[in-house]
Structure formats: structure tokens, C-alpha cells
Amino acid sequence: MPAINRNPRRPDDDSLFQSRGWLSKSIGYLLRNLTPRCFEMRRLISEEMDHPLPPFTRLKMRAHYLFCCYCKYYKINLHYIRFALRHVHEHLNETSGTGLAPESKQRMKQALRNAFGVT
Length: 119
What we know:
Layout: H1 22-34, H2 38-50, H3 55-65, H4 69-87, H5 102-116
């Protein structure tokens, strides 16, 4: 029975060491043992956004990014979310502030009462 790859590579994976050849596998294995694990990287990425990390820790994180595209994309997504949340107030005026019409609210309340059998 063939082995199931539970963590397949992303199609846009541009990691330097993708464990394809023996040399890449050897270097990747060495890096994996010298760098933080992915669960530690999540914490370090969050800490890095709050305050500067020591140079050696940053170096180990960069080495981790060489073979782990998931942590790299996690960092990109976290920065995007932070950027979006910082700038959401600039676009609040573009949204409608009227809300639902009273008739719509009553229809929704009645539909929920009917669905759950509340009288």
C-alpha cells in the first residue's frame, strides 16, 4: 500500500529545500534539527510582530523558512491581517449605516420562531 502524504507541498511552494534529492534531504534534515519546530515558529512570528527578537533567533527563523513554506505563508497572512485591521477604520464610512428595515427584522424573527417552534 503506498504511503499517504498527509502534508503535501503547495503548488506555489518556493522553498529552497523540498526534500527531492539526497543532498536536499540531508540539508533539510540538518536544518529541521537546528531550527524551531512549526508550533514554536507560530509563537515566534507573533512575538516578532510585537518586539524585535534576538539576532540568533531571527537567523534560526530564516533557516526554517528555507524548507517550510507553511510557516512562511503563515507569517505573510498574519502581517496581512494586521495591516487590514489597522486600516479598516479608513473604510468604515463606505459601508451603509442604515441597517435592516423593521419589516425585514419582523420577517426574520417570525421565520426563526416558526423554525424552532416558538410561539
